């Protein structure tokens, strides 16, 4: 919090109608870091309370999705997987995609679903979406292990996988994916406080976005006519690089990756500014 | 003066009335256009004082207007006013839940607000886990909570259930736990809403005691309540709000006296002023209200054990198929102490457009003290829509002497407000 100088005395906090757009009060978030981790803990503890399988659901989700994709897109629709084992190909895309889509959908209702808490107590609102990112990061970690096991199995059994030095980029890809989901999420959540229409858009928008990303098909089979459209999607190059790193097929292009990075950066800064504007007075419109 | 820890300067808050979401885009565009041309926000000019009983011409309303006050370190400031006077809005601004439309608040030191106890409790988590969660939401660090955990558990009195999910708790236990966490916050400034209205008498006493401790330690407290007796016992200074504006600020007992004079209308001729309704749809309106003794003479003083009549008149603007009427008596600290409802159990009352004349005969149940009355008429075919509700009219005083002067209420202070007949069975063995 910025101490503002009064002519005689200094104040620790000044509550004003509007703050400067660049004054994002990020240091406040550090002060509340304990809360962030308690929210993460709450999410995990409460998620699988009173379930029989408990954390096993973390594994079941990607497995069932990958199997479904294998049956429908691989066997029925016979979409190419660039010659890779289908289950591995789908799991590769699904693991990273789930992280992105979960982050986006869960952060996109930050304001509306936490209105009861936000209406009573002040803390930096950004803590809530950040805790969602961390929760999903942990979930991704677990699902990533599963993917690695399947990957190792195929690697050992002599399939022609070509893991390469792009593997070094994987942590960066994961961070980028998280921030992209978060940026979309906080922008949507800020706008839904006033215009609820967006809430409906999120559900099928995310689904549409998945088909506009190379999850169930490789980028290589996209006709040249439509390629630019798929490439304009910032998710595309992240997924393609991820696949390239582990499987050796797919496209790896620094330019495309730089585009995704730039897109995410701009979107994130924009998101922070909008979010910060809305958090101060959203209680009046929600 | 350097020991001023909170200073509010010209705070105002404007709200938009009516259905949110209709026409907001056009208003937003209008605003943006005005801003672009360097003009003032067109919607900030309109708006009127927040008098709910009058239907205003404008879509915007000032729920707070030009509030100025200062609080010194160690002071306990009470904030009073009727429902809708802007107390909650002021609290929301002070606790940073929302921003003022204009003006600013300057604060020195850490500020924590208690608008609710147990905010953010998760039903599936255990009591212990919720202590940490709730504490962190209120702004404590994990280490801070850990060091106070024992005290918090002790204070709450739920040690036995600490590892049980809070959804198994009774509501009372939940409140205790929530307050226990809050009570161990150590901010320089504490803002408290009427959270004390919950819990049993013993617990309320404990809470009030804790708040006295807090102020005794040199910390500053802002306390909002309807309960004049707790305001009186806690606060040394009082801010009285009416229709979103500062009515007065100063010494507690003086302000409370003014509050009673202003808010409780003594009806000499029985006419109810237009602006007394807290809810009004325009379909019905209480016009007249008179308290009389059994002989029919209007009175404002009753003897102990004296029965009385009330007579009222309602102007009804449309047919109401299923109406109920309610009549209640409030004590001087604004608590309901007696309610009688017609006709909630049997078929509802069918009312035709025109005039309703109501006469009630009341048994001598009131103990000595000062009371006021509240009247309501509701439409049950419309999920209990309140057509008119009038609060705090017709101040009466019940003396501690019977009418013939022979008997006196036996105790020095009234124990409670009502005298209830009971069948006693006593055996002495």
Name the features.
heterodimer, A: 286 residues, mainly alpha, two-stranded antiparallel sheet, 12 helices, 3 strands, globular, disordered N terminus, B: 429 residues, alpha/beta, Rossmann fold, Coagulation Factor XIII, Chain A, domain 1, 2 domains, seven-stranded mixed sheet, six-stranded mixed sheet, 9 helices, 23% helix
Please characterize this protein's 3D structure.
Chain A is 66% helix and 2% strand. The N terminus of chain A is likely disordered. Chain A starts with a strand and ends in a 5-residue tail after the last helix. Chain A has one domain. Chain A has twelve helices and three strands. Chain A has 286 residues and is mainly alpha-helical. The radius of gyration of chain A is 21 Å and the shape is globular. Chain A has a two-stranded antiparallel sheet. By secondary structure, chain B is an alpha/beta fold. Chain B folds into two domains: 181 residues, P-loop containing nucleotide triphosphate hydrolases (Rossmann fold, 3-Layer(aba) Sandwich), CATH 3.40.50.300; 129 residues, abc- transporter (atp binding component) like domain (Coagulation Factor XIII, Chain A, domain 1, Distorted Sandwich), CATH 2.70.50.60. In chain B, strands 11, 13, 15, 16, 17, 19 and 20 form a seven-stranded mixed sheet that branches. In chain B, α4 crosses α5 and α5 crosses α6. The model of chain B has no long low-confidence stretch (mean pLDDT 81). The chains are: A mainly alpha (286), B alpha/beta (429). Chains A and B meet through β3 and α2 of A and β1, α3, β5 and α4 of B.
Secondary structure: elements and pairs:
The complex is a heterodimer of chains A (286) and B (429).
Chain A (H helix, E strand, L loop, with lengths): L3 E2 L4 E2 L1 E3 L10 H6 L1 H15 L9 H20 L9 H22 L2 H4 L1 H4 L8 H30 L13 H23 L4 H15 L12 H9 L1 H14 L6 H28 L5
Antiparallel strand pairs in A: 1-2
Helix pairs in contact in A: 2-7, 3-4, 4-7, 4-8, 4-9, 4-11, 7-8, 8-9, 8-11, 8-12, 11-12
Chain B lengths: L3 E13 L7 H13 L5 H4 L2 E2 L10 E13 L3 E5 L6 H8 L7 E6 L3 E4 L12 H11 L4 H15 L14 H13 L5 E4 L8 H16 L3 E5 L3 H7 L2 E6 L2 E7 H12 L13 E4 L3 E10 L7 E4 L3 E9 L3 E12 L4 E7 L6 E3 L2 E9 L6 E11 L5 E18 L27
Parallel strand pairs in B: 2-3, 4-8, 4-9, 6-7, 7-8, 13-20
Antiparallel strand pairs in B: 1-3, 1-5, 9-10, 11-20, 12-14, 14-18, 15-16, 15-17, 15-19, 19-20
Helix pairs in contact in B: 4-5, 4-6, 5-6
């Amino acid at each position: 919090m910025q101490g503002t100088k009064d002519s005689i005395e200094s104040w620790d906090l000044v509550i004003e109608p509007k703050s400067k757009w660049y004054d994002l009060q990020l240091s406040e978030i550090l002060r509340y870091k304990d809360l962030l981790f308690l929210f993460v803990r709450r999410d995990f503890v409460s998620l699988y309370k009173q379930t029989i399988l408990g954390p096993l659901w973390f594994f079941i989700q990607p497995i069932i999705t990958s199997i479904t994709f294998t049956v429908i897109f691989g066997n029925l629709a016979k979409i190419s997987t660039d010659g890779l084992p289908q289950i591995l190909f789908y799991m590769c895309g699904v693991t990273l995609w789930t992280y992105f889509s979960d982050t986006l959908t869960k952060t996109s209702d930050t304001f509306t679903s936490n209105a009861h808490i936000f209406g009573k107590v002040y803390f930096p609102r950004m803590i809530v979406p950040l805790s969602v990112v961390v929760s999903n990061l942990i979930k991704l970690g677990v699902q990533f292990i599963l993917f690695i096991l399947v990957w190792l199995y195929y690697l050992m059994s002599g399939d022609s996988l070509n893991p390469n030095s792009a593997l070094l980029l994987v942590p960066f890809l994961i961070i980028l994916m998280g921030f992209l989901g978060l940026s979309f999420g906080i922008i949507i959540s800020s706008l839904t406080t006033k215009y609820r229409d967006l809430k409906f858009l999120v559900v099928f928008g995310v689904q549409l976005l998945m088909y506009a990303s190379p999850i169930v098909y490789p980028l290589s089979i996209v006709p040249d006519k439509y390629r630019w459209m798929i490439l304009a999607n910032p998710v595309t190059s992240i997924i393609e690089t991820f696949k390239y790193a582990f499987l050796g097929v797919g496209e790896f292009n620094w330019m495309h990756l730089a585009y995704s990075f730039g897109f995410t950066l701009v979107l994130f800064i924009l998101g922070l500014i909008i979010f910060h504007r809305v958090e101060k007075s959203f209680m009046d419109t929600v | 003066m350097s020991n001023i820890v909170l200073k509010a300067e010209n705070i105002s808050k404007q709200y938009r009335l009516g259905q949110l979401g209709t026409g907001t885009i056009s208003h937003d565009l209008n605003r943006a256009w005005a801003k672009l041309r360097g003009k003032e926000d067109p919607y900030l000019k309109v708006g009127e004082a927040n008098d709910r009983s009058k239907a205003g011409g404008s879509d915007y309303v000032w729920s707070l207007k030009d509030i100025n006050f200062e609080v010194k370190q160690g002071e306990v400031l009470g904030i009073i006013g009727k429902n809708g006077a802007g107390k909650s809005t002021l609290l929301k601004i002070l606790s940073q839940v929302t921003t003022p439309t204009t003006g600013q608040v300057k604060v020195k030191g850490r500020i924590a607000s208690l608008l609710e106890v147990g905010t953010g409790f998760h039903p599936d988590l255990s009591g212990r886990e919720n202590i940490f969660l709730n504490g962190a939401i209120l702004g404590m660090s994990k280490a801070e909570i850990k060091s106070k955990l024992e005290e918090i558990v002790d204070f709450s009195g739920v040690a036995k259930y600490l590892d049980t999910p809070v959804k198994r708790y009774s509501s009372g236990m939940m409140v205790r736990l929530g307050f226990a966490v809050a009570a161990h916050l150590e901010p320089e400034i504490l803002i408290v809403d009427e959270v004390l209205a919950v819990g049993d008498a013993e617990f309320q006493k404990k809470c009030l005691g804790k708040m006295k401790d807090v102020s005794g330690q040199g910390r500053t407290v802002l306390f909002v309540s309807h309960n004049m007796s707790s305001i009186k016992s806690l606060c040394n200074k009082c801010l009285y709000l009416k229709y979103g504006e500062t009515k007065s600020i100063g010494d507690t007992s003086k302000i409370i006296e003014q509050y009673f004079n202003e808010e409780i209308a003594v009806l000499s001729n029985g006419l109810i002023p237009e602006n007394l309704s807290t809810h009004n749809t325009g379909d019905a309106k209480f016009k007249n209200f008179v308290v009389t003794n059994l002989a029919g003479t209007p009175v404002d003083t009753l003897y102990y054990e004296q029965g009385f009549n009330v007579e009222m008149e309602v102007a009804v603007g449309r047919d109401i198929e299923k109406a109920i009427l309610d009549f209640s008596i409030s004590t001087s600290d604004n608590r309901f102490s007696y309610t009688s409802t017609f006709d909630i159990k049997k078929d509802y009352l069918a009312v035709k457009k025109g005039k309703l004349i109501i006469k009630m005969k009341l048994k001598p149940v009131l103990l000595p003290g000062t009371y006021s009355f509240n009247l309501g008429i509701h439409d049950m075919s419309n999920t209990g829509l309140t057509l008119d509700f009038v609060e705090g009219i017709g101040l009466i005083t019940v003396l501690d002497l019977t009418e013939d002067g022979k008997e006196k209420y036996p105790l020095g202070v009234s124990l409670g407000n009502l005298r209830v007949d009971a069948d006693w069975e006593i055996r002495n063995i």
